[in-house]
Design goal:
The chain has 288 residues and is mainly β. It has two domains: 28-141, Beta Complex (Metal Binding Protein, Guanine Nucleotide Exchange Factor, Chain A), CATH 2.170.150.40; 152-263, Domain of unknown function (DUF427) (Metal Binding Protein, Guanine Nucleotide Exchange Factor, Chain A), CATH 2.170.150. Helices cover 0% and strands 44% of the residues. The protein has no helices and 22 strands. The chain has strands at 28-32, 37-41, 44-49, 53-57, 63-67, 76-85, 89-96, 103-110, 123-126, 133-136, 139-141, 152-157, 161-165, 168-173, 176-181, 187-190, 200-209, 213-222, 225-233, 248-250, 256-259, 262-263. The strands form four sheets. Strands 1-4-5-9-8-7-6 form a seven-stranded antiparallel β-sheet, with no helix packed on it. Strands 12-15-16-20-19-18-17 form a seven-stranded antiparallel β-sheet, with no helix packed on it. β13 (161-165) and β14 form a beta hairpin. The radius of gyration is 21 Å and the shape is globular. It starts with 27 loop residues before the first strand and ends in a 25-residue tail after the last strand.
Protein backbone atom coordinates (compact mmCIF):
# COMPACT_ATOMS: atom_id res chain seq x y z
CA UNK A 1 0.00 0.00 0.00
CA UNK A 2 1.18 3.56 -0.60
CA UNK A 3 0.15 7.18 -1.11
CA UNK A 4 -0.96 6.41 -4.68
CA UNK A 5 -2.28 2.84 -4.44
CA UNK A 6 -5.53 1.18 -3.36
CA UNK A 7 -7.64 3.10 -0.80
CA UNK A 8 -4.98 5.78 -0.18
CA UNK A 9 -5.96 9.42 -0.92
CA UNK A 10 -4.40 9.37 -4.40
CA UNK A 11 -4.96 5.66 -5.05
CA UNK A 12 -7.25 3.92 -7.51
CA UNK A 13 -9.88 3.07 -4.86
CA UNK A 14 -9.71 5.91 -2.28
CA UNK A 15 -11.53 5.17 0.96
CA UNK A 16 -12.37 8.79 1.71
CA UNK A 17 -13.90 11.76 -0.07
CA UNK A 18 -12.30 15.03 -1.29
CA UNK A 19 -14.15 18.34 -1.56
CA UNK A 20 -13.11 18.33 -5.24
CA UNK A 21 -11.94 15.30 -7.16
CA UNK A 22 -8.21 15.41 -8.07
CA UNK A 23 -6.89 14.04 -11.34
CA UNK A 24 -5.20 10.74 -10.49
CA UNK A 25 -4.58 9.03 -13.81
CA UNK A 26 -0.92 9.40 -14.78
CA UNK A 27 -0.07 11.18 -11.54
CA UNK A 28 3.65 11.29 -10.65
CA UNK A 29 5.35 12.67 -7.54
CA UNK A 30 9.14 12.66 -7.23
CA UNK A 31 10.77 13.54 -3.92
CA UNK A 32 14.24 13.29 -2.37
CA UNK A 33 14.84 10.54 0.18
CA UNK A 34 16.97 11.36 3.24
CA UNK A 35 17.95 7.70 3.63
CA UNK A 36 21.22 6.16 2.52
CA UNK A 37 20.28 3.33 0.15
CA UNK A 38 22.59 0.49 -0.82
CA UNK A 39 22.07 -2.43 -3.19
CA UNK A 40 24.40 -5.44 -3.24
CA UNK A 41 24.74 -8.49 -5.47
CA UNK A 42 27.47 -11.13 -5.55
CA UNK A 43 29.29 -9.31 -2.77
CA UNK A 44 29.53 -6.18 -4.95
CA UNK A 45 27.97 -2.90 -3.89
CA UNK A 46 26.14 -1.82 -7.03
CA UNK A 47 24.36 1.17 -5.47
CA UNK A 48 25.50 3.40 -2.62
CA UNK A 49 23.24 6.44 -2.64
CA UNK A 50 22.81 9.40 -0.34
CA UNK A 51 20.83 11.38 -2.91
CA UNK A 52 18.16 8.85 -3.87
CA UNK A 53 14.75 9.94 -5.11
CA UNK A 54 11.46 8.19 -4.52
CA UNK A 55 8.96 8.13 -7.36
CA UNK A 56 5.28 7.77 -6.46
CA UNK A 57 2.97 6.90 -9.33
CA UNK A 58 -0.77 6.46 -9.45
CA UNK A 59 -1.73 2.79 -9.04
CA UNK A 60 1.82 1.59 -8.28
CA UNK A 61 4.10 1.04 -5.33
CA UNK A 62 6.82 3.69 -5.00
CA UNK A 63 10.30 3.00 -6.36
CA UNK A 64 13.78 4.39 -5.78
CA UNK A 65 15.71 6.20 -8.50
CA UNK A 66 19.42 6.97 -8.19
CA UNK A 67 21.80 9.56 -9.65
CA UNK A 68 24.17 7.94 -12.12
CA UNK A 69 27.23 8.80 -10.05
CA UNK A 70 25.88 6.70 -7.16
CA UNK A 71 25.49 3.55 -9.29
CA UNK A 72 28.26 1.28 -10.59
CA UNK A 73 27.51 2.11 -14.22
CA UNK A 74 30.63 0.19 -15.26
CA UNK A 75 28.61 -2.96 -14.48
CA UNK A 76 25.84 -1.99 -16.91
CA UNK A 77 25.65 -3.16 -20.53
CA UNK A 78 23.21 -1.59 -23.02
CA UNK A 79 20.10 -3.62 -23.80
CA UNK A 80 18.10 -3.44 -27.01
CA UNK A 81 14.93 -3.08 -24.97
CA UNK A 82 13.02 0.19 -25.17
CA UNK A 83 9.74 0.93 -23.45
CA UNK A 84 7.56 3.99 -23.43
CA UNK A 85 4.94 5.47 -21.16
CA UNK A 86 2.88 8.58 -21.73
CA UNK A 87 3.76 10.25 -18.44
CA UNK A 88 7.45 9.28 -18.21
CA UNK A 89 8.61 9.02 -21.82
CA UNK A 90 10.97 6.45 -23.32
CA UNK A 91 13.03 4.18 -21.09
CA UNK A 92 16.46 2.88 -22.07
CA UNK A 93 17.39 -0.43 -20.45
CA UNK A 94 20.64 -2.04 -19.33
CA UNK A 95 21.77 -5.52 -18.38
CA UNK A 96 23.63 -5.84 -15.09
CA UNK A 97 26.79 -7.96 -15.31
CA UNK A 98 28.68 -9.06 -12.23
CA UNK A 99 30.72 -12.27 -12.11
CA UNK A 100 28.76 -14.52 -14.44
CA UNK A 101 25.63 -14.32 -16.52
CA UNK A 102 24.07 -10.87 -16.79
CA UNK A 103 20.81 -9.92 -15.13
CA UNK A 104 18.85 -9.02 -18.24
CA UNK A 105 17.13 -5.65 -18.29
CA UNK A 106 18.00 -5.05 -14.65
CA UNK A 107 18.18 -1.24 -14.84
CA UNK A 108 16.57 1.58 -16.78
CA UNK A 109 16.44 5.35 -17.26
CA UNK A 110 13.68 7.60 -18.54
CA UNK A 111 16.18 9.66 -20.51
CA UNK A 112 13.81 12.15 -22.15
CA UNK A 113 10.69 12.67 -19.99
CA UNK A 114 7.83 14.66 -21.52
CA UNK A 115 7.21 18.29 -20.70
CA UNK A 116 5.66 18.71 -17.27
CA UNK A 117 7.08 15.43 -15.92
CA UNK A 118 9.32 15.42 -12.84
CA UNK A 119 13.09 15.63 -13.53
CA UNK A 120 13.66 11.95 -14.26
CA UNK A 121 16.55 12.22 -16.75
CA UNK A 122 19.88 11.22 -15.23
CA UNK A 123 18.23 8.96 -12.62
CA UNK A 124 18.60 5.20 -12.86
CA UNK A 125 16.07 2.67 -11.65
CA UNK A 126 17.20 -0.83 -10.68
CA UNK A 127 14.79 -3.74 -10.41
CA UNK A 128 14.47 -4.86 -6.81
CA UNK A 129 14.95 -8.51 -7.74
CA UNK A 130 18.10 -7.78 -9.75
CA UNK A 131 20.09 -7.38 -6.52
CA UNK A 132 20.44 -9.81 -3.64
CA UNK A 133 20.41 -7.37 -0.73
CA UNK A 134 19.05 -3.89 -0.16
CA UNK A 135 19.75 -1.66 2.83
CA UNK A 136 18.15 1.53 4.13
CA UNK A 137 20.91 2.96 6.29
CA UNK A 138 22.23 -0.25 7.93
CA UNK A 139 18.94 -2.16 8.08
CA UNK A 140 18.02 -4.69 5.43
CA UNK A 141 15.02 -3.76 3.31
CA UNK A 142 12.91 -6.60 1.91
CA UNK A 143 10.32 -7.10 -0.84
CA UNK A 144 10.14 -3.49 -2.06
CA UNK A 145 10.98 0.07 -0.96
CA UNK A 146 9.11 1.25 2.11
CA UNK A 147 6.75 4.15 1.53
CA UNK A 148 7.40 7.00 4.02
CA UNK A 149 3.64 7.69 4.05
CA UNK A 150 2.75 4.14 5.08
CA UNK A 151 1.94 3.47 8.75
CA UNK A 152 1.75 0.21 10.65
CA UNK A 153 0.44 0.58 14.21
CA UNK A 154 0.27 -2.40 16.58
CA UNK A 155 -2.14 -1.81 19.46
CA UNK A 156 -3.19 -3.91 22.43
CA UNK A 157 -6.92 -4.51 22.53
CA UNK A 158 -9.23 -5.92 25.19
CA UNK A 159 -12.13 -6.23 22.76
CA UNK A 160 -13.59 -9.71 22.63
CA UNK A 161 -12.52 -11.08 19.25
CA UNK A 162 -14.40 -14.15 18.03
CA UNK A 163 -13.38 -15.74 14.70
CA UNK A 164 -15.47 -18.39 12.97
CA UNK A 165 -16.28 -19.86 9.58
CA UNK A 166 -19.51 -21.59 8.64
CA UNK A 167 -20.44 -21.63 12.33
CA UNK A 168 -17.18 -23.35 13.36
CA UNK A 169 -15.31 -21.44 16.09
CA UNK A 170 -11.64 -21.00 15.14
CA UNK A 171 -10.37 -18.58 17.77
CA UNK A 172 -11.61 -16.39 20.60
CA UNK A 173 -9.66 -13.96 22.78
CA UNK A 174 -9.80 -10.77 24.83
CA UNK A 175 -6.01 -10.40 24.90
CA UNK A 176 -5.31 -9.88 21.25
CA UNK A 177 -3.51 -7.21 19.27
CA UNK A 178 -4.71 -5.30 16.25
CA UNK A 179 -2.67 -3.88 13.38
CA UNK A 180 -3.94 -0.72 11.76
CA UNK A 181 -2.00 -0.49 8.51
CA UNK A 182 -2.34 2.04 5.72
CA UNK A 183 -4.60 0.77 2.98
CA UNK A 184 -5.58 -2.49 4.70
CA UNK A 185 -8.45 -3.56 6.94
CA UNK A 186 -7.62 -3.98 10.64
CA UNK A 187 -5.92 -7.32 11.25
CA UNK A 188 -6.73 -9.02 14.54
CA UNK A 189 -3.90 -11.10 15.99
CA UNK A 190 -4.73 -13.85 18.48
CA UNK A 191 -2.40 -15.65 20.92
CA UNK A 192 -1.80 -19.22 19.78
CA UNK A 193 -3.26 -20.49 23.07
CA UNK A 194 -6.61 -18.95 22.08
CA UNK A 195 -6.70 -20.61 18.65
CA UNK A 196 -8.07 -24.08 18.02
CA UNK A 197 -4.73 -25.53 16.96
CA UNK A 198 -6.23 -28.89 16.05
CA UNK A 199 -7.90 -27.21 13.05
CA UNK A 200 -4.66 -25.73 11.68
CA UNK A 201 -2.84 -27.46 8.82
CA UNK A 202 0.68 -26.15 8.11
CA UNK A 203 1.04 -24.73 4.60
CA UNK A 204 4.11 -24.35 2.41
CA UNK A 205 3.09 -20.81 1.53
CA UNK A 206 5.41 -17.96 2.55
CA UNK A 207 4.99 -14.27 1.78
CA UNK A 208 7.04 -11.19 2.48
CA UNK A 209 5.99 -7.72 3.61
CA UNK A 210 8.31 -4.72 3.48
CA UNK A 211 6.93 -3.50 6.82
CA UNK A 212 6.29 -6.67 8.83
CA UNK A 213 8.71 -9.29 7.52
CA UNK A 214 8.04 -12.85 6.32
CA UNK A 215 4.87 -14.78 7.14
CA UNK A 216 4.13 -18.50 7.44
CA UNK A 217 0.63 -19.80 6.69
CA UNK A 218 -1.88 -22.40 7.79
CA UNK A 219 -4.90 -23.84 6.10
CA UNK A 220 -7.90 -24.45 8.37
CA UNK A 221 -9.97 -27.62 8.47
CA UNK A 222 -13.71 -26.94 8.38
CA UNK A 223 -15.43 -30.31 8.67
CA UNK A 224 -13.62 -32.38 6.04
CA UNK A 225 -12.85 -29.32 3.88
CA UNK A 226 -9.53 -27.46 4.14
CA UNK A 227 -9.71 -23.69 3.65
CA UNK A 228 -6.36 -22.98 2.04
CA UNK A 229 -3.97 -20.42 3.53
CA UNK A 230 -6.57 -18.80 5.76
CA UNK A 231 -4.28 -17.88 8.68
CA UNK A 232 -0.75 -16.58 9.03
CA UNK A 233 1.93 -15.76 11.58
CA UNK A 234 5.07 -13.62 11.67
CA UNK A 235 7.43 -15.71 13.76
CA UNK A 236 10.26 -13.17 13.56
CA UNK A 237 8.63 -9.89 12.57
CA UNK A 238 10.44 -6.64 11.92
CA UNK A 239 11.22 -4.56 14.98
CA UNK A 240 8.36 -2.12 14.37
CA UNK A 241 5.77 -4.87 14.79
CA UNK A 242 7.61 -7.09 17.28
CA UNK A 243 4.57 -7.48 19.59
CA UNK A 244 2.78 -9.74 17.06
CA UNK A 245 5.56 -12.36 17.06
CA UNK A 246 4.04 -15.85 17.23
CA UNK A 247 0.43 -14.61 17.13
CA UNK A 248 -2.11 -15.80 14.55
CA UNK A 249 -4.21 -13.64 12.21
CA UNK A 250 -6.98 -14.67 9.83
CA UNK A 251 -8.18 -13.15 6.57
CA UNK A 252 -11.17 -10.94 7.48
CA UNK A 253 -12.23 -11.24 3.85
CA UNK A 254 -12.90 -14.99 4.05
CA UNK A 255 -14.52 -15.61 7.43
CA UNK A 256 -16.58 -14.02 10.20
CA UNK A 257 -15.10 -11.80 12.88
CA UNK A 258 -17.15 -10.55 15.83
CA UNK A 259 -15.92 -7.72 18.05
CA UNK A 260 -17.63 -7.57 21.44
CA UNK A 261 -20.47 -9.58 19.93
CA UNK A 262 -20.91 -7.40 16.84
CA UNK A 263 -20.40 -9.15 13.50
CA UNK A 264 -18.03 -7.24 11.20
CA UNK A 265 -18.59 -6.84 7.48
CA UNK A 266 -16.17 -8.75 5.31
CA UNK A 267 -13.96 -6.18 3.53
CA UNK A 268 -13.41 -6.31 -0.24
CA UNK A 269 -9.67 -6.41 -0.93
CA UNK A 270 -7.30 -8.27 -3.30
CA UNK A 271 -7.51 -11.21 -0.85
CA UNK A 272 -11.29 -11.52 -1.23
CA UNK A 273 -12.53 -14.57 -3.18
CA UNK A 274 -14.68 -12.29 -5.35
CA UNK A 275 -11.86 -9.82 -6.16
CA UNK A 276 -11.66 -9.20 -9.93
CA UNK A 277 -8.47 -7.12 -10.15
CA UNK A 278 -4.80 -8.01 -9.79
CA UNK A 279 -3.54 -9.67 -6.62
CA UNK A 280 -1.38 -7.55 -4.32
CA UNK A 281 0.26 -10.17 -2.11
CA UNK A 282 3.34 -10.75 -4.26
CA UNK A 283 6.43 -8.63 -4.71
CA UNK A 284 5.62 -5.95 -7.31
CA UNK A 285 7.00 -6.11 -10.82
CA UNK A 286 8.54 -2.78 -11.73
CA UNK A 287 7.83 -1.81 -15.32
CA UNK A 288 8.82 1.31 -17.17
Amino acid sequence: MSLTLGPAPLGNKPAGVFNSEPEREGLLYLEPSPRRIRGIAGGVTVIDSREARMLHEYGRLPIYLFPREEVRTDLLEPSERRTRSENKGEALWWHLRLHGEPVEDGAWEWHDPPRGAPPLAGLLGVKWGALELWFEEDEEAVVHPRDPYHRVDVLDTSRRVRISLDGELLAETDRGKVIFETGLPPRWYVPLDDVREELLIPSERRTGCAYKGFASYWSVLIGDRPEENLAWCYREPRREVAPIAGMIAFFNERLDIELDGQLQARPLTPWSPEWKGERADEAPVITA
